[in-house]
Amino acid sequence: MKVLNEMEQSKSDKIPSKKLDDPQEIGTEIEETNITRSHKRSDRSKLVNSRTIYPTNNSTNYTGNRMNQEQVGMTAFDSTPDSGMYDYRVSLEKLKDELSKFGLTANQSKVYIYLGKYGSKTAPEACRALKIPRTETYHLLTTLQNKGIVSATFQHPIRFSALPLDKAVWVLVNAEKERVKSLEKQEKDIVELWNGIPDFNTGPIETKEEKFQMLQGANQINSKIQDMITKSAEEILVLGSEKDFLRFYHSDFLSPLNDSKADVKILTSCSEKTLYIFDEADKTDIKLMPVDIKEDICFMVMGDAVLFFMKNASQPAQNSMAMWTNSIAMVQSMRLLFNSVWSKSKGIHP
Q: Please, which pLDDT band fits residue 332 given cuts at 50, 70 and 90?
């Protein structure tokens, strides 16, 4: 009780004596004091928030809930059409498609590009900037390290950096070459194992049947085309757009085609700028299709088989799809279509 009395006495001392006799004035004074303190706390809170969101130039490192400029800034990966970085985002998407040809997944390419263009980063920094789950980010960084195109520091926290693009491509290409060499060396052993297992088919010998095969990816499609060229000894008919033949040109499809002993005929929509594709070919066997022919048609008739693309050349190489079949009806239909367009097309003169 003594303590309470002292506290009450202390409060009374802070109130002017002339107001002690008026309870209403005492209550008003206390309320005004509380409001003043509340405003001061609010002002201090705004000051702290302002310093947190808009750090000064002298403040570079922040802890706790504070965010640095990189964390609040927008990266080129998530830029919007109205931002100045959107043009770079389009280029980044194209670069991701190109890196997929070297065996990188979309997110692996994204992490590699981010480290290469934004400098060395920690895993949490990459996770926040790219909006990839934390566990997946660590897995991606480990995979890229195993591929030899990302390195890590010994410091804590660990920082990851990417190899320059030319060196990274060299590493990936050489790794693929070594893998192919290893597979070639294993071919003999695999064949011996295969031949050591007897055939358990006791039924009648299968007669030739009409079949089809779905192919996905540029490598699988090009391998099938090479096999068809090798087996075809009579006639090879190829119809495709300018984009199709540009893809064929860069995949070295035309070289064995030019060396083939079969009768080769080509229908294309190439413009004068891309006629260099056929510099080594006999121009008498090439014609320009009429302009009313759709650009998304591409097929090849070789001997008793036909291969036609399900997706045109505007799709990324790894998404290419084609169907091969030895169906007599399909082969005859495609041959008739080719000959019909051939009769309406104009030749290319040297």
A: very high
